[in-house]
Amino acid sequence: MKKIFLPLGLLALIAAPSAGLAKLVLDIPPILAGKPPVPCEDDTGCTSGKKCCSGSCYSDVTNFCYNDKVYAKSNGFECGGTYYPTGVGYCCGDQHYATTDGFCCEEQHRTSGVCCDGDYYADACPAPSGPTNLLNDTGIVTPTGGGQDADFGRDKTHPDDTDGWKGFSFTSINSTCVLDNVTGLAWEVKTTANTGSTYNWTGAKSYAEGFTGCNGSTTYTCRLPTVKELLGIVHFGKAAAPFIDPTFFPNTASATHLSGTEVANASSSPSTQVWGVDFFLGNTDNAISKESDGYRVRAVCVPKP
Amino acid sequence: MRLFVYCFLTVSFLIASPAFAGCDADLAKSTEHLTVNADGTVSDSKTKLMWKRCPEGYTYTSPNTCTAGATATYTWSVALTLPATFATYTDWRLPNVKELQSIVEEQCSAPAINVTAFPNTPSSKVWANSPSAASGYAWYVDFSTGTAVDALKTQSYGVRLVRDM
Questions:
Q1: Any chain A CB within 8 A of the CB of B23?
Q2: What structural domains does chain B harbor?
Q3: What is the nearest CA distance from A128 to chain B, expressed in angstroms?
Q4: Could you tell me if B95 lies within 8 Å of chain A, comparing CB atoms?
Q5: ipTM beyond 0.85?
Q6: A149-303 classified as CATH 3.30.70
Q7: What whole-number distance in Å separates Cα of residue A157 and Cα of residue A279?
Q8: If you count Cβ atoms within 10 Å of the first and of the last residue's Cβ in chain B, which end, N or C, has fewer?
């Protein structure tokens, strides 16, 4: 249950005190321990897999030659065309900074504020307090290549499974409510007792608007999700139904769930049909009569202002 | 009703079909997050996605016209290989099924899209780059109704490219 809005700037500040000591050794190359160096004039004078640096052979698999000195690759990094062999400090916008000197956010050097999921804020990370309008990724991570779904998106860039499958990011609010950190929406978590209950549209609307399972320190306004919101929690990468993250959305029926979105049909106003999403396949359905019984419901909630 | 008439006249659907074609309400409200750019692209400030205004196989003519060429449908594997360069950008790609469904306009039917932003959109099926859990199938969105369904990859459907902003 990982929260994505960790104050990364704060972490940098916590890490900072140890840097003062390290800074002292910035220009002192680490001495390569072990056998005496094999002398050489150029790379051809070294055995296979080794290169020549300042008259001595070294392994370029693990080491690096810079300004005629040998450094361990694992220790250093390049910044703005210069190699920093001991790895002390950090690189931001091609400029090198001491570890104690602020942090890097949005590729700019900062001395105050915080970095939240890659975005800079002058004071504190915002808590997700309602819809972000961002889309969830699909959950598809194979096959890759050739511009298919798995080549792009949060499933690739944020593949951590502890907060939900791959690119999904959920935080449990309580046993009947989960927050989607990507979309900012709080969702009802079904129970074994209520997952089988079915409704027509009016009944479902009434159920969703009366849902109180997210309430705690924050009070939420709940309703039926739009068809887009409902499709947003479909996990298309699963091999079998129900097509939803099984950890954060247990007890999900592999059946059509109602949305609050009415079907365009101006010839009979108001519309007689509504949209739904079938978690048996993940498809949307726009041929659901408002009068028909037998559909599942899952409330979606946003914090009251 | 006034809003509906306004929208209907503006959009000028002339498709004679027993199925409803047109829009239920004032589309202006649902276009606030869409910015039509001069280069034939549309920026969506909500989803942070940029779309090509015309489907693949169509030619864009400023300011608001898409003209179909000889070929405008592709099998799924061919759809994945369409050129990624347009309007100074080189990272156009097929949208995934959720991205493609994000431009469905549920207030409209035949086509279920905002035709102010996406002119001359045919009421037909468009591929997503998402393979289905069913072997040999991939997801598409039918812009006649707006539904997201899967179909055999060997079917020939339309393509609308997207890129991350």
A1: yes
A2: 2-164 (3.10.100)
A3: 15
A4: no
A5: yes
A6: no
A7: 25
A8: N
